[in-house]
Structures are given as C-alpha cells and as structure tokens.
Amino acid sequence: MKPVPIGILGSGKGSNFRAILERIRSGDLAAEARLVVSDVLDAPILDIAREFGVPNAYLPPGRFRTRLEPQTEQQLVRMLRDAGVELVALAGFMRVLHEPMLKAFPRRIINIHPSLLPKFPGLEAWKQALAAGEEVTGCTVHYVDEKIDHGQILAQREVAILPNDTPESLHSRIQMLEHELYPAVIAELCERLP
Ligand code: GRF
Prior knowledge:
Elements: E1 4-9, H1 15-25, E2 31-38, H2 44-52, E3 56-58, H3 70-82, E4 87-90, H4 99-104, E5 109-113, H5 125-131, E6 136-143, E7 153-160, H6 167-192
Parallel strand pairs: 1-2, 1-4, 2-3, 4-5
Antiparallel strand pairs: 5-6, 6-7
C-alpha cells in the first residue's frame, strides 16, 4: 500500500507525534509525515520533526489566542496542500480550526483528546475528571469540527482513576494509551482513504 501523506499540527511537546513517527518507522502505519506545523516557535514538536527529518514550519498565529487569523488559516491550507497532505492529525494543537481548514479537508482532520468525550472537553481534561470524582476516564480520537473537542468519535480507550492518582500520574497513564490509540486509528483511516 502506498503511504498516505499526512500533516501534523501541534503546539507542545509532541509525544503523540513521536509515537506516530515510531509506528511509521516500524512499518505498522502506512503513512508518510509530509509536514509538521506549529503555532509556537520553540515547541518541542518542531525539534522532534527535525530529529526525524520531517519538513516543519512555524506559523505565526496572529492576534487571537484560541484561533488563527482567517488569512493565516488560509495560509495553513496552502502549506498542507503544497505538501500533498491528505489527512491532518492534530497532536496537541491548541487552536480551534474554522472554515478554511474544515472546508479544505472535510472529514480529513482528526484530533486526540485526553478524556472520554463528550465528557470533559477543553483544557486539562484529566484534572476535570479527577475533580469530578470519576472512576474512569480515558482518551478519544475524533473528527474535528468547528466546536472544541467535538465531532464524530472514531475510537476511545478507558483508563481507571486510582484512589492515589495525582493529575500528573493520571495524565501520564492517559498519554501512554494515547500513544497506542492515535497511531492505530491513523493506520486504520489510511487504509480506508479513497
Ligand atoms: C495530548 O494529551 C492530547 O490528548 C491533547 O494534547 C496533548 C498533546 O500531547 N490534545 P503531546 O504534545 O502529543 O505530548
């Protein structure tokens, strides 16, 4: 099978991106990381891209805090198209996407979120689950739409919350599962892409 060209957007440490690259390397994921874009100049995800020799770019986000300027989002579409990207994976990208991206890549943008959506969308979802006294939380991979951490759910994994869990211990167990789930879902989608 021909590897599917994927693009990755991230603002932070990039551990999910690393897991994706490792799965590509081991031959379990028929994809090719064509471009990584970050809205944060010194984001570690860009260092990982350099380490693995993946083309990467910093996209100055403009004056908004939670979204891109419309013309910046248009620019992002052009960058991804120029790179031949067919599937976009958000990996810790801290901005909500709008029409330019959603129209350009319909049902081709996915996200991973550290909770069992629809529970606990938004920031620090593992802390939200702890504070709510949940016994189980987890992670979700879903298609991206115009709402935050919303859109059709593709897959979920559960994580038990232990009595002595701290936000850090819980987050780290969720992330371990994310690193299995996200590449697996991407692999499945890549196989099914027309
Ligand atoms: C992950 O926990 C993901 O669920 C959320 O952002 C975090 C990104 O982590 N959307 P990393 O940058 O992949 O380490």
